[in-house]
């Protein structure tokens, strides 16, 4: 079997061509030792990618989110952000209780320090709705390149809350200290997957 063939086939997929190369390469190397055919390796990697990212948002929803972001202004902020959040499955599921989650978190941690949001998804869009301080440094990362581009555009608007976006799409080494780590989208998956999946 040829590793490059598997990687190319996955990257050629419309659904997964936005996933950063490092993740695909690592997954292929891990799966290729388990199967006897490239077809099975490709299928296994795509299944895992679906579980950690593909199930939450599709290309059409991403395009809608970009469109809504382009028309965002102070008057329509809350309305448009809620529409954007509704396009992402896991974010939509948390909309009704996300304010309570933030209140509980910051009542324990305080309103300063740094947050690293791993596999952030659309979490950064909750910031202007529920983050009531500008003393927190917020770092976000995700394996979906298009999603990172979307979040980058949002967080770097002239009127945006003062936050920091970690542009590394795949973290190899953490070079700064954080008091808090968010991995809301992956929590259920990591806890219910077989041992060793956390290394992804």
Verbal overview:
By secondary structure, the chain is mainly α. The protein folds into two domains: 3-54, Helicase, Ruva Protein, domain 3 (Orthogonal Bundle), CATH 1.10.8.10; 96-199, Rossmann fold, CATH 3.40.50.150. The protein has ten helices and three strands, in the order αααααααβαβαβα. It has a three-stranded parallel β-sheet, with no helix packed on it. The radius of gyration is 18 Å and the shape is globular. The two termini are 22 Å apart. The relative contact order is 0.13.
Gist of the model:
The chain has 200 residues and is mainly α.
* Strand order, sheet with most strands: 2-1-3
Beta-strand residue percentage: 5-15%
C-alpha-based Rg, rounded: 18 Å
Oligomer: single chain
Overall pLDDT confidence: 79
Unreliable stretches covering 5 or more consecutive residues:
196-200
Secondary-structure arrangement, i.e. CATH architecture of the largest domain:
3-Layer(aba) Sandwich
How many separate domains make up the residues?
A: 2
Q: Tell me the name of the CATH homologous superfamily of the largest domain.
A: Vaccinia Virus protein VP39
Q: Largest sheet at a glance?
A: 3 strands, parallel
Q: Name the shape in a single word.
A: globular
Order of helices and strands: HHHHHHHEHEHEH
Number of strands: 3
Which topology of the largest domain does CATH recognise?
Rossmann fold
Helical region count? 10
Secondary structure category? mainly alpha
CATH first level of the largest domain:
Alpha Beta
